[in-house]
Amino acid sequence: MNRSEMLHGKHAVIFGAGGSIGSAIARQFATEGAEVCLSGRNAARVDEVAKAISNDGGRARAAAIDALDEVAVDSYLNEIAKRTGRIDIAFNAMGSDPRAYGNGKNTVDLSVEEFMLPLTCMVKSWFITARAAARHMVKQHSGVILFLTGSPALRPGSHGSNGSARAGTGDG
Question: Which helix (H) or strand (E) holds 14?
């Protein structure tokens, strides 16, 4: 690991750390010196990322947390704050799984509910994770909250519901 230590002594929480973007951000934060607390619904993928970071000399912990579960997110961040004394960075990289939202279905065949589902889930997770992190950051008078605001389609050129929803947010 080529360390710059820009984030030395910082504690970063990454939701969606098992995905390609979340894991890349986690690796970079660790390279910059942060202790990273990784979470995601897929425990095996999050554990794999934590092990890779640790093997490269970084500090990482993994947990299976659903960013849509308020109680779980609050409990997770409370535990981290209690253990580390602070939360400096909260990054929500949770993406929607296109297959769970009818990706591949022609847009003209989608209901409004199907179209809105990925957006609703992402915005809900942003609120839940940001509110939980902000509760700690306000007390410590510092902290940064970041969101991943785009979600890739299942495959390039896909015109499924996920691509349509992305286009609806200005990211398409």
Answer: strand 11-15
Q: Which residue has the higher pLDDT, 42 or 150?
A: 42
Query: Quick one: pLDDT band at residue 2, thresholds 50, 70, 90?
Result: low
Q: Which domain holds residue 89?
A: 11-168
- Per-residue pLDDT tens digits for 84-125: 999 999 999 987 766 666 667 788 888 888 888 888 888 999
Return the beta strands (E) in 18-171 as ranges.
Answer: 35-40, 59-64, 89-92, 144-147
Q: Is residue 2 part of a domain?
A: no
Q: Judging by beta carbons within 10 Å of its beta carbon (0-12, 13-18, 19+), is residue 17 exposed, middle or buried? A: buried
Helix (H, G, I), strand (E, B) or coil at 151: coil
Indicate the number of domains in the chain: 1
Tokens linked to 50: 């934590």
Question: How far is it, in rounded angstroms, from Cα 112 to Cα 26?
Answer: 35
CATH number at residue 51: 3.40.50.720
